[in-house]
Amino acid sequence: MNRKEFVMKKTVMQKMGAVFFAAVVGVVLIAGCASVSSKSGWVPSDDGSVTFYVTRHGRTMFNTVHRAQGWSDTPLTPPGVEVAEQLGRGIKAQGITFNAAWSSDSGRARETARLVLENSGNAGIALRETKNFRESGFGLFEGDTDENMWGNAGIHLGLGNTVEEAYQAIFAAMMTGRYTISDVLGAVKAIDTTGFAEDYDTVKTRMQNQLVQLAEEYAGKGGGNILVVAHGISILAMISDWTTEQPKGGQLENASVTKVVYKDGKFTVTELNNMAYVEAGSQ
Fold it and tell me: What pLDDT score was predicted for residue 25?
């Protein structure tokens, strides 16, 4: 081998060595990234199921003064803050960790979610929000008194001639099964003049579609626990196809937990209006 051939062979070997070194470094970096990713905090479930801890927000100012609060918003009252903190502590006592957290884009839901995360040991979880988890829209009656909204709905349904009379009758009619919340929301929509009021099926569809999307996404990651903070009527509408059980009194309590499990394409409601977490966190 002459000198020229020797130099050319040496150069080729050096290039091959550089390529090999780069490949080795690449493998190491990829392995390192995978290692970091595997320690990113995602805790899959044993069976791949996704468990949604769906809670109603804490008590608000409008809840306290009995005014209609759908898309409109008021802040949590001090008792509302306290019950959200208690819920967080109760969740912590159970050793529950969340892989993700969602709320509606209403301030009361967002504030509740943050308090739950901070007090449950899940403060590092990023909170995401969506308008699909909003409460039912009440259109013209947003911010109006509960009596005026439900009373006018009752008049529309033929339950009385005055707001006061129909307001008393509409809840009795729902308790006896004469009318459902779907009928009542339909009446609110029928007498609304703004076009913003929603009927029951509209609320149910947007809530279910959003939960299905999240369930499928998180099932693909191995499942685990997900926090969702939403609203009383919208939560009940969402789960209406998955359970026949109803909360005592017909409505969810503030900061109650309704647990929904997704597995093999099916949703199952395993807890409804559960206040045990709040009670545990109040000790």
Answer: 37
Over the stretch 120-153, which tens digit does the pLDDT of each residue have?
Answer: 999 999 999 999 999 999 999 999 999 999 999 9
Q: Are residues 173 and 202 in the same domain?
A: no
Least confident piece of the model among 2-16, 122-136, 223-237, 268-282: 2-16
Contact (Cβ atoms closer than 8 angstroms) between residue 80 and residue 58: yes
Q: What is the DSSP letter of 76?
A: B
Same domain, 116 and 159: no
Residues in contact with 270: Cβ distance below 8 Å, sequence separation at least 6, in sequence order = 259, 260, 261
Instruction: Report residue 272 as tokens.
Output: 């409804």
For residue 260, the SS3 value is strand
Same domain, 67 and 106: yes
Cβ neighbours around 257 below 10 Å, total: 24
CB 224 within 8 A of CB 99: yes
Does 211 lie in the same domain as 122? yes
Q: Are residues 65 and 165 in the same domain?
A: no
Secondary structure of residue 181 in the 3-state scheme:
helix
Residue 54 domain flag = yes
| 3-state DSSP assignment of residue 274 | strand
**Full residue range of the structural domain in which residue 120 is found:** 50-137+198-281
Supply the pLDDT for residue 40: 57
149-189 pLDDT, tens digit each:
999 999 999 999 999 999 999 999 999 999 999 999 999 99
Q: How confident is the model at residue 36 (pLDDT cuts 50, 70, 90)?
A: very low
* Beta strands across the sheet bearing 224-230: 127-130, 100-104, 224-230, 50-56, 257-263, 266-274
Of 56, 85, 115, the residue nearest 233 (C-alpha): 56
- Residue 22 CA to residue 244 CA, distance in Å, equals 61
Q: Residue 37: CB partners within 8 Å, gap ≥ 6?
A: none
